[in-house]
Structure formats: C-alpha cells, structure tokens
Specification:
The complex is a heterodimer of chains A (about 375) and B (about 210).
Chain A lengths: L2 H9 L22 H10 L7 E4 L4 E2 L3 H6 L4 E3 L4 E2 L8 E4 L4 E5 L5 E5 L10 H6 L5 H4 L2 H14 L3 E5 L4 H9 L1 H10 L1 H26 L5 E5 L12 H20 L5 E5 L8 H7 L3 E3 L10 H8 L4 E6 L4 H4 L2 H15 L5 E5 L9 H14 L3
Parallel strand pairs in A: 3-8, 8-9, 9-10, 10-11, 11-12, 12-13
Antiparallel strand pairs in A: 1-2, 1-4, 5-6, 6-7
Helix pairs in contact in A: 6-9, 7-8, 7-9, 8-9, 9-10, 10-11, 14-15
Chain B lengths: L1 H11 L3 H13 L4 H21 L5 H24 L7 E7 L6 H12 L3 E9 L1 H11 L3 E5 L7 H12 L7 E5 L5 H6 L4 E2 L3 H15 L1
Parallel strand pairs in B: 1-2, 1-3, 3-4, 4-5
Classes of the chains: A alpha/beta (about 375), B alpha/beta (about 210).
Chain lengths: ~375, ~210
Amino acid sequence: MNSRERVLATLSHRVPDRVPIDFGSFPGATSMNVRAYQNLLQYLGIKREVRIGALIMFTAEIDGDILDRFHVDTKTVTPSRALSDYNFPEEFMDRPWSVKWRRSTDYTYAPVEGPFQKIVHPTLDDLKSFKWPKPSEVEDFSQWREKGKKLRRESDKALVARVPPGIFTLAQFMRGLEGWMTDLILNRQFSDAFHEKLAEIWTETVGGVIEALGDNVDIIMFGDDFGLQNQPIVSPQMFRERMKPLMKRMIGKIKSQTKAKIALHTCGSVFAYMDDFVDIGIDVLNPLQSNAKDMEASKIKEKAGRNLALWGGIDTHEVLPGGTPNDVRQEVKRKISVLGKGGGYMLSADHNILTDVPPENLITMFEAAVEYGKY
Amino acid sequence: MALFDELRASIVSGNPEAAGVLTRKALQEGQKAENILHEALIPGIHEVGEKFGRDEIYLPELLVAGMAMKEAVAVLKPLLADRNIKSAGKALIATVRGDLHDIGKNLVGMMLEGAGFEVIDLGIDIAAEKIVKAARENKAQLICLSSLLTTTMPAMKETIQEMKKAGLRQTVKIMVGGAPVTQRFADEIGADGYASDAPSAVKKAQEILSKMK
C-alpha cells in the first residue's frame, strides 16, 4: 500500500495497513511555524532556505526529504513562497482581503486590522464600494496547475490543496472578530450580504483551483473556525439558520466539480455541529482538539462513525510543548487506539507546531505513529 | 417595576439602544442611579452569565449583552461618581507580552465593568514591567492576564515574578485566562485565580477580592 492508497483507504473508512500520517499538507494548521521549522532543520543538521507554506499563519512548506524521513503520507499541492521575499516582517498585508497581520515575539502572526473593522455600523454600500478581488487575484492558478502535475508525477503521497479560508473566518479577519459577532445580531442585513459576497468569491476561486489541478489532488481543505475552547462560537440554532445553508451550497457546488475528499479544519469545541458537517458534505474533520469541551477522542469517534473521517488529534497545548518524549508516545498510542479503530483516522498534531515544541518530541510523535499505527 | 423589568430584559436580550433609552427614562422618572444599577442592570448581566454557563446563549449574544450593559452604565457613571459610590474593585486587564489576541480580554473587561468594577484596559502585547508600573500608578487591586498562545504563557509567569520583585504581590491579586491556560498552570505559576470564560472570570474576581476585604 503506498501513501496515497493508505490515506484514501482510511478517509473512505476502510482499514489501511497503518494509520496514515500527515505533516504540513494543510499548511494553515497541520504544519510548523517557519522559525520552529528552521530550528528543526538545524537540529537535524540540515542547511537550506525555508519556504512559506501559508503566509497568514507564517508556516513552512515541509520539504520532501523531511516528509520521507518521518513516514508522512501527504504533501501539499498549494503553491508556496520564498521566505527571502518576506523575511519575518513586523507587519504585512494579506493583499486580496486587505487584512493587516502583525508579528508576535514567537514569530506567529495575528490579524490586527481588516478593511471593515473600523466602521461602526457597516452598510451594504460599504460592501459595494470595497474592491473585491477576482479569483485570479486570490490564487495564481498556473502555479497550482504546475505544482499538481509535478507532484503527481514525482510522488506517491496523497496531495492536499489548501484553498482560501472559509467565508466566516475571512469575514472575521476583514471585520474583526467582535464586529463580526456583533453584526450577526445587531446588523443582520450587512452580515448576511457580507457572507453571500464572500461565498460567491470563494466558490469561484475554489472552482478555479479544482480546474487547475484536475485529478492531481486528493483532498481539498479549508479552515473555518467554528469552535472556542468551551463551546461553539455561535449557537447550533444560529449555525443551522445562517451558516449551514450557505456552506451546503458552496460545498455542493465544489463537490460537483471534483472527486477529491472535502476536509474542514475547525478548532475548538465543535461536537455540536458534527452532524451538520456531514449534511453539508464535509468528508473529513480536522484537528480534533481533545482538550476542548465535548471533544474527547472517544466521544467524537463515536459521533463520527462511518460518516466523517478524522484527522489530527495529537495535543499541542500541553503534551507536545510540555511533555516528555514518553508522554508523547503515550498520547500517540492512546489517540490511535481510540480514533484509529476500524480506519477513518489520519494522525497529525492538532495545530501548527510552534517554537515551544522540542524537536525530540516532534520526532517521537512520528516514530510512535509508525510503531503503534499498524493494523 | 415594569420599567426595571424592561431594562433588565434589554440587557439579557442584548439591545444596547434600548438599554440606553430605558436607563435615561428611569432617571427621568426619578429612580436613583444606584438602584437602577443594582436592581435592573446587575441582575440582568448576572442572568446573561448564567445563561452563557448553561450554553443557552453563545459568544455573540454575550457580547451584545455586554454592549447593552456598557451603554446603560455609561449613562449612570457620572451620577455614580458624583455620589462617590464605591466600585466593586479596580482591575487592570492586559494580553501579555508577545500575544496580540484581544477578544477574550475585551470580553472579560466588559463583563467586569458590567459587574461594577473599574477596569483599566492596557491592551495587547504588554510587557511585565509595564503591567507592574500601571498596577502601582493606578493602585490596582486585581490584574487579569490573557494569553491565547502556548508560547506566550510564560510571559504570565514573568509578570507574576515582576510583581513580586516590585513588592506588589501581597496587595494585588492576579488572575489568568485564555484558551491554553488551565487551573493547573495557574497554580504552577502562583496566580490567585483562573477562569475559563468571561462570566466565570467575574465570579472569580468577586470571590478573590471579597477574601481581601
């Protein structure tokens, strides 16, 4: 069984030869902070230029030799950028959406100002006067096309496309999280029209990516955060009334254009939405933050059943940064025994690896995954 | 007290405009500011906190309820200050050095204000020395520190150590919160309290300060 077959088997709820391993194929949230990756390379005695996998998250594109070394079964087909073009700027502008990001002391970035953030009561006119990007300004489709062809030719790994963030996360970046939440209740007309507009651009852009990749993609993945640590960000009722119908339309459209699996990354406590994700057409859920409320591994495995494949699971809050290598082994063993039962599980850290994770712990995670992952 | 019921409902349902209008109306009808605060607004925000704890409302509803509370309290503030009504306590809030996330901190600030605390918001990415200086200058009784990243959690410990060095640790209580923060972490770094969300942060703050008095 090669890597691609292993991944596709498990995501289709068949039992593969071992639990597949991901590292960085969704550079938005299963990769490694650029500075942390530089530290890892140094630890391994490797000197080379790092490429940026996801600009806003400032994560690395994990190189092919590192993926092979750790028995990783996935590879991102998303175009990357040279670090030398950016070089840890204090701030940068995420062009298509006009969102300003600022660097923290740990070399991660946070969105600090979006184009609608300072408007007290935004209106439909504000939406009209914004210069919305064309899909070709959001993504460079020729780069996707080339990378897809090249990787499919050279690699037997499952190819993962990280498409633009989901519309609710984008709306949060552009309006600020507080403004976005306030609008949901106090400025519903704007809120709904804003989401509609983003859905239109998102669907067209993802359609462009699908067209460029053709069969050279196995998983299409986007991040749209619906969970806080202790509860979903909005009530299940609001989610079902305001968000689900839009998502169903968007995912329905892209599923009519590709055979690839559709994966959703959403942090935090989202147990309450799991059935809705299935209705929407999501095939795979990431990252399974087991320390968030209602997200215990056994509980989500039972709920997911054969309807939703699971991806992620290894704790980045405490175990990877603060645990010993033995703690990491136990965490991997435990998660595989619960989540891996009967297939339907791909292992990765439950978020990007930051500078506080010792390289030994990361390496242990991969070694333990191979050791305990055999079916 | 139909008007107080209406006012309380405007907080619970998160209607900032109505909260402002009804507060002014209550004053015009001759109600005392402190009665409006204690009999309508605080019970309202208390109910909001309870509902949030029971997952009956979520963050957007909590946020607009906090906005409604803020609107009403803004109307009363000059009157309460005139009569020298004591605040529930003076709290400094900040997101620690290196961390740029502010939603959790803002919510805690809003809920504390709603519960009658005087809140000084230092902002995001705030160095330990700056927090110590502000605590001294403002004679704060409570400091609430926020962090969303595992990599910035050590800055909480650093802040507590700086407070000790400055000789302020005995007189100022310190609470910590944020997604990766746990009670265990709070105990390890010697914080006085931890809360997992904004309404419980208010409860914790009241509990800690009542022990001081």
